[in-house]
Amino acid sequence: MVEADGADALTMRRLANELDVATTTIYWHVGNRAELITALVRRHGARLAEAPVEGDTARDRVLAVARLIWESAITHREITRLASAHGAASLHAQRLELAMARELQESGVVGEAARDALRAITACVGGFIVTTMLDDLVPADHRRTSVLADLDDPGLDPATREALATSSDLPSLFEATLRAVVDSIVPADLTANAYL
């Protein structure tokens, strides 16, 4: 329902109708709408975490988990929006972040270093998620490329000005940025790891 019609479509009455039960049944077994949303977000996050994390090295697997967070947020935009709007985004990604913490630990990044590494990686991923999802909602004339296209700054090289007015290949930019962040935290040669 949420994926098909958006977060606002999730009402107790509509859910009860689709399940062919009384509205009070949902309140009795699940709770109010906020509790229903929390349960839905937790369950969806648990399902996402069932995906296998593949990679030959811990660094490859950290990248794989980060990509899984990105891809699932974009694929399931409405659930991502619902989780964010109700302050449950951390619950949504909880199990995937735990998987990432395990892979960081496997690579030798532990304790406060693992905490900071996980937060750096998820902040990178989160920034790309927000950018992607905002483009869905922002009118075309208010998008970053449109707004920058209208600026006339003589201090910018014309080629830079022209480039700023065009869209980036966000998935490619995500991949390059993510790899740079992860490589700086989990290098191939663990003796060179600044976090150890």
Automatic annotation (TrEMBL):
Alphabetical UniProt keywords: DNA-binding, Transcription, Transcription regulation
PROSITE patterns referenced in this protein's UniProt entry, alphabetically: HTH_TETR_2
GO molecular function, one term: DNA-binding transcription factor activity
Keyword Transcription among record annotations: yes
Domain HTH tetR-type, first and last residues per copy: 1-48
UniProt-listed SUPFAM superfamilies: Homeodomain-like (SSF46689), Tetracyclin repressor-like, C-terminal domain (SSF48498)
Leader sequence residues: none
Protein name (Swiss-Prot/TrEMBL): HTH tetR-type domain-containing protein
Organism this protein belongs to: marine metagenome
